[in-house]
Amino acid sequence: MLDWTDRHCRYFLRLISRHTVLYTEMVTTGAIIYGKGDYLGYNGEEHPVAVQLGGCDPEHMTRCAVKSQEYGYDEVNINVGCPSDRVKNGSFGACLMAQPQVVADCVKAMQAEVDIPVTVKCRIGIDDMDEYEDFSRFIDIVAGAGCDTFIVHARKAWLQGLSPKENRDIPPLNYARVYQLKAERPELNISINGGITTLEQTSAHLEKVDGVMIGREVYSNPYILADVDNRFYSDNRTTPSRAEIVGLMQAYIERQDAPYFKPWHAARHMLGLFQGQPGGRVWRRYISQHGTGKNPDPNLLTNALAAMQETAEKAIEYQSKDVG
């Protein structure tokens, strides 16, 4: 979810679910160590939240893990699944599946210096290394270094010939391979990722594995999280309505004081909030038209909601006249 799940996105998602573990977009060790920005900053309301690191040097990874713990993150996750060229050229991400010992060295070094969990997100294979034996060998070497939690994207990655977008769709899903891993290694905590779009599918996966990670569907249809706390965490609180979330996010936008901040930075993550709802298209269009440019609407979200509701009311009025 590179460039997607930033701090504004995570704050928004936390309003919908109190218990879902949120992950940062991948942050490289180079950015954290040498960059001028605060690449580890987050809102205190985001917990439980995990930082996802991209890197391959045990010393650098350890420095960043220690810093992440000092910031208060609940988990540090090593990304061994991203097939982006930016990642591949830096010798980390999915290409590290061909170097399990490097990942194991990072895990061991990091765990020696931090108390928070060190976890790994990976694929089921890369390029021609896509047999179950290759996958299980990677898991065994990294687990042997002390990692007991793996989040597995149930697709292989083609590092040559496919774009990152194509790698999210073209390689076929192989959930059975992840199930087999869990069945053969019950002592490991295994979560599954890839192509999951409903809570019904989530429930089915949880009969075979320990956890489910949902990425793109949550981003495009975030209110799917509205029933997660009740369904999976036995929390019977009432989830804020979509309209209530709009009000909370408008207040969040108004609190931001960073000189570079614009309402669009938060609102862009909310385009799918009314997916499938009457007026949802008006909501998306208003935000897109009035949230960017030199003079964005300071009341962007409340005005977008008003425009959407007005359109919906007119539609009901027209329907009533037709019936009459």
Automatic annotation (TrEMBL):
PROSITE patterns, per database record: UPF0034
Ranges where the DUS-like FMN-binding domain occurs: 1-304
Required co-factors: FMN
Positions of the record's site feature: Interacts with tRNA: N79, K165, R168, R281, R284
Molecular functions per Gene Ontology: flavin adenine dinucleotide binding; FMN binding; tRNA binding; tRNA-dihydrouridine20 synthase activity; tRNA-dihydrouridine20a synthase activity
Record's keyword annotation contains RNA-binding: yes
Reaction(s) catalysed by this chain's protein: 5,6-dihydrouridine(20a) in tRNA + NADP(+) = uridine(20a) in tRNA + NADPH + H(+); 5,6-dihydrouridine(20a) in tRNA + NAD(+) = uridine(20a) in tRNA + NADH + H(+); 5,6-dihydrouridine(20) in tRNA + NAD(+) = uridine(20) in tRNA + NADH + H(+); 5,6-dihydrouridine(20) in tRNA + NADP(+) = uridine(20) in tRNA + NADPH + H(+)
EC numbers, comma separated: 1.3.1.91
Presence of keyword NADP: yes
UniProt: FMN binding residues: Q52, K121, H153, N193, G194, G195, G215, R216
Keywords of the record: Flavoprotein, FMN, NADP, Oxidoreductase, RNA-binding, tRNA processing, tRNA-binding
Pfam families documented for this protein: Dus
Residues at the active site: C82 (proton donor)
SUPFAM superfamilies to which the protein is assigned, alphabetical: FMN-linked oxidoreductases (SSF51395)
EC class name: oxidoreductase
Family of the protein in this entry: Belongs to the Dus family. DusA subfamily.
Cited function: Catalyzes the synthesis of 5,6-dihydrouridine (D), a modified base found in the D-loop of most tRNAs, via the reduction of the C5-C6 double bond in target uridines. Specifically modifies U20 and U20a in tRNAs.
Name of the protein described by the UniProt record: tRNA-dihydrouridine(20/20a) synthase
Gene that this sequence comes from: dusA
